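HUMAN:
Could you generate one sequence with tokenized structure?
ASSISTANT:
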Amino acid sequence: MLKKLTILFFLAGITSIQVAAQGFLHADGKRIVNGKGENVLLRGMGLGGWMLQEGYMLRINREGQQYRIRERIEELMGAKQTEEFYNLWLANHTRKTDVDSMKAWGFNSIRLPMHFNLYTLPADKEPVAGKNTWLEKGFAITDSLLSWCKANRMYLILDLHAAPGGQGNDLNISDRDPSKPSLWESEANQQKMIALWRKLAERYVNEPWIGAYDIINEPNWGFEDLANDKNGIKEKKNVPLRKLMVDITKAIREVDKNHLVVIEGNGWGNNYNGILPAWDNNMALSFHKYWSYNDPGSVNHMLKMRDEYNIPVWLGETGENSNVWFTEAIRLFETNNIGWAWWPLKKLGFNNPMEIRSNLNYDAVVNYFNGRPGAGKPKESNAYSGLMELATYTRLENTTIHRDVLDAMFRQPFSADAKPFKANKIMPGAVVKAVDFDLGRNGVAYFDKDTADYHVSTGKNTPGNRGRVYRNDGVDIRKDSTLYEQYFVNGIEAGEWLQYTVNVIKKGKYNLRLRVCADNANGKLSVSSGKVTFAKEVAVPNTGNEKNFTFVEIKNVALKAGKQVIRIYADSGGFGFSEIRFTN
């Protein structure tokens, strides 16, 4: 027994040494490095929606600040049941299994968007003005998350997403109440923010798996011309922002000389006018990037600033787009040694690794909150049931995990190969769903003309998957109202195609029956495998609309045993397609 205990203590000691071996992340010129001086390329995920709900993540598009969502929920079902919902939400949304999964998928870091009100009271609710009441809840949640990160050798980056009073005029991202003084209009709010960062630094000073302190998320405030530049995009000096970040850094360094401090510019993190040069020798710049082209020019300003000031750059928040955009962006960032943190891990939406499912009672709450015509006020019991079910659905095992998103983030940036979305085993009676086309880049696994949203660069909205369900590639997918939990490809344009890697179990001649729909008689398709064309310009009949499906049949297709690649090509578009049936 003594020998066993000795071995266990020895192994525990090894584990402890391994956990601490890499040391603290820090700035080394233009690089972020670990304690060994090794370059660290952060591949991270932001836990948006956990401590801080933004309305869009819950499909609430009116009054989307968390405090208003909570107030409206209280109006439906009372304070006690509302507290139950939020406690269950916090307990379920992110757990050890989420962190374990992120590690297995390829992430090496997590960005925690913190709401200050889980750590301290708002300044106007302090029993003694100017004093800080510390709340254990936020610190306990952070401690648990840190323990899960340490177990997985992942860095945890603390991000103050909702600062006291709110740091900008984009109200939802900081849960700001515009009827009260903002962060920039209240000395008490600023002092509370400084004190909070000192408290966090004091608590985590000796934790090397805390990767960095991201001290303020996306400030967006017009200091010089608030009336005409409310989000600070054109700000030239940024004096109050720089002063506050300097004061926070000073407070951190009073108790913590170890950790990397990350700063963000005005205008949602990108306007650094007047902010640099750096005031500390262990700092990094964070930029945020959404809906712009992923060409070299789109990161030139980051690289220029990195070179000019000899300081590391980190893409602290990005995402909310299609798989094509994800692949392009990550390849661009990593080619330039820029680490990244995606946004978010999960929400009620399909373009993230995990999708939270809704339910009928919650849908009724959303319709009521959004003022949908005919949507009445839900019963208290129905609202409670719907919200508690939603909180239960945030658990990883109850979400839909989008493997296509993960493939686009980790394999496709540096691989031009296609791979099967599902194991399509072909024998008489087999069915291949149209939406289960191969995983891979546009032009490799499929070809679609509208693949991503670049509206910041183009001024036009091009969403990629217009149906916004099932997969996050450029292909348009909608739910089939005629079949339970079934989907189909629609909006097919001339020249587009879909590829399916299949494994033919039994060689022979097959009839391929394609289930199609169309509201015109213009559609034509071809079917091929490699250099062999099985059928060319097969007419797709007019079925009246997308709810009516029929079959077109391609007879006597000879398939060899083993792996083959089948392509469905649109000679002319205007039709939908749901499946291929393989019959004798």
User: Anything to note?
Assistant: The chain is about 30% helix and 25% strand.
